[in-house]
Amino acid sequence: MAEKAVTKKSYTVQEVIDLVLKEGKLDILKETVDTIKAGNPDTVVTGIVTTMFPTISVIKEAARLNANFIIAHEPSFYNHNDSPDWVKNNAVLKEKRQLLEKHKIAVWRFHDYCHALKPDAVNYGLAKKANWLPYFKTGEVMLTIPGTTLQELVAHLKTSLKISHVRIIGDPEQPCERIALLPGAWGGQRQVSTAESEEPDVLIVGESPEWETVEYIRDAGLLGRKIALIVLGHAVSEEPGMEWFTEWFQPKIADVKITHIASKDPFTWL
Amino acid sequence: MAEKAVTKKSYTVQEVIDLVLKEGKLDILKETVDTIKAGNPDTVVTGIVTTMFPTISVIKEAARLNANFIIAHEPSFYNHNDSPDWVKNNAVLKEKRQLLEKHKIAVWRFHDYCHALKPDAVNYGLAKKANWLPYFKTGEVMLTIPGTTLQELVAHLKTSLKISHVRIIGDPEQPCERIALLPGAWGGQRQVSTAESEEPDVLIVGESPEWETVEYIRDAGLLGRKIALIVLGHAVSEEPGMEWFTEWFQPKIADVKITHIASKDPFTWL
Questions:
Q1: Which chain B residue is nearest to residue A220, measuring alpha carbons?
Q2: Which of A52, A99, A133, B262 has CA 20 to 30 A from B136's CA?
Q3: Local structure of residue B212 (DSSP, 8 states)
Q4: Alpha-carbon distance A259 to A48, whole Å?
C-alpha cells in the first residue's frame, strides 16, 4: 500500500500577518505601531510564539522550539515606537537584535490590531481567565460581578491570573461589584476619565503613573469615595489576552504550531 | 519692668517664594510647572507645610496646624501641568479645590526649582538619608558606595528611608558599588540613557514605565550584564528631598514655622 503524501500548507511572516487581519476582520490601520520589528516578511514560518514582551528568554525559548516568528503585544526595544535611537548607542538593544538575527527570528508587534479585535482580545482574555465572561460585554470596560470585597477580589485575581503580588489602594473590606477593567498601560488620563465617568467600585489596571491615577485614587478615597485601585503589573495584566489570541488563532492556521510563552512578572518583590 | 515687644516678621506667599529663589540663588525659569496652584500670592503666611504630594490628608493636617501655605514637590491635580481640564468635570479635583478654599490654603509647586538647587535637593536629601553623603557629588547621579550586595542594599534602603516594600530586578547576591540615583519619575529615556552611559551596578528609581526601563533591565540581566533595578516608589523616593529642603529653609525664615508632612507610600502591598 502506497503511503499517502501529506502536504502541509506553509506561510510566510507576511501571510501570517495577513491571515490575522483577515480572520479578525480588521481594517488596515494607516498609523500603527504594529510593524515588523525584526526579520523578513518573506521568511517561511517554522513555528509561531506569542507573548507579551519578546524578552531574551522568550527569544531563546522560541529558538529552542524551532519557531522563527514571535508575535508580541508590546515593544521589542523599550520604547513605544521601537525606535533604535530612542537611546543612542544602546548596546542592550544591539545585542538583542544580534540574537534575533543569529536565530533568524522575525518579530511582529500585535498591539493596535489586538485591541481592535471585537471583542478586544486583551479585555476578553482577562475576563475569560478571571471567569468573568458571563459579565463581559464587547466594547465595554465595565463589568458588574457578583458582590465581593476588595480583599476577596484581589485573592481571586491572584489565584485565577497566577499573580504573586499586587499593589492596591482602598479599604480591603470595601464592597466591589462594578469593575473597570483596564489591563496594560492606558495612561492616567484614560484611567482617571473612566473613574470619573463610570464611577466603578474598583479600577483594575496593569500599570499607572503614580503622580496621576494613583494620587487621584488616594485623594478620592480620602474624600470618602468608595473607589479602589488594583495595580496588577503590565505584563501579567495583558498576558491572558495573548493566551486567548493563541487559542483563537491556532485553529485558523492548523499547519503551523503556535506556542504561547508568558513573559511573566519582571519583578522580585521585597 | 516693661515687657519688650516682640515683633515677628511676616511674609506673604509670594515673599516666601521669592525668599526660596533668592536664598537658593535660583535663576527665574521662563517655563516652569512651579506655579501657585491654589490660593493667593498676597495671603499672609501663618505657617508652612512641605510635602511631596499635597494629598487630602496633608491639606487637613496643614489646616489643623494652622499652616496656610503648602510647598509641594509634585502636582496637586493629578497631571504634570495641573490643568483642571486634563479630565473634564473631575469631581475629585473640584472637591479638593473646595477644601483648599475652605481652609484658605495656598499651594505652590516646588519641582523645577527644587531640582535646580545646587545640589539638587532631592538627590542630596536622598543621599543624606541613606548616609551616603561622603560619596555624593553635586551635579552627579553616580555614587560609588562601599561594596555590598543587591540584597543588602535593598535592606539598607528600606531601613534608612523607612520604606516597607520595593520591587527589584536582579540577582540578590549581585555586587553593588556603582549606584545611579534617580529618585522620582525621570522617564524611561533618561533612566535607560543613564544605564547605558554610566553602566552602574544598580539603577535606583522612584517609578518607571514597565515597557521601557523595566524591560530594558530585564533583558540586560538576561544577556549577562550585572545591572540591577530598584524601584522605591515615587513619593517615598523623593520625600527625603523635601525633608532636606525644610531643614535648609527653616533657618532662613525663622519667624515662620515649617512642618514637613510625608505623603507616604500610597499603596497597600498584597
A1: B92
A2: B262
A3: I
A4: 6
